[in-house]
Amino acid sequence: MAAAAVAPVQSDVKLFNRWTFDDVQDNANDLDPKVKKYLRGDGANLEKLKDKKLKGQLADREQLYGKSAKAAAQVEKWLMPCEEGYLEADGLEKTWNIRQDNILGEVDILSSRKPFDLVLPELGPYTVDFASSGRYMVVAGRKGHVALIDMMNMDLIKEFQVCLL
């Protein structure tokens, strides 16, 4: 009985957990302004060098710098938000009159799981700012009240009263 030869199966499946420089190059058209932000200045002038080994090493290094700048621009495109969200009222409706219950029905599922109510009646009005990751929130009142809150756990990290001497 002869064994049948099995041909290897060709697969067109692309691995999604790794990306290469070629993937970054495909999107280079819309990244060019952002790539310039990550470049390390003007490249070395290789034409004046006479040492072939040094010239080759510097050429490789400059190519690596270009690849890393393009990769950093691609990561910025993936991770950094393009624009901030905002609330737009219809007609004569006022934004302060819109309740969180109304907003929860209009946002995505992940955002609708995170509503919170913050009541700070005494030392306001308050200014609120978030860390770039969205993990921490700082609340500062006009009368000196400052609080740092972990938004993942909704835990108060630090709270203090600032006063002028």
UniProtKB/TrEMBL annotation:
Tell me the domain of life. Eukaryota
State a GO cellular component annotated for this protein.
small-subunit processome
| Family annotation (InterPro entries) | WDR46/Utp7
- GO BP, one annotated term: maturation of SSU-rRNA from tricistronic rRNA transcript (SSU-rRNA, 5.8S rRNA, LSU-rRNA)
PANTHER family assigned: WD REPEAT-CONTAINING PROTEIN 46 (PTHR14085:SF3), WD-REPEAT PROTEIN BING4 (PTHR14085)
* Identification of the protein by name: U3 small nucleolar rna-associated protein
Write down the species: Thalictrum thalictroides (Rue-anemone)
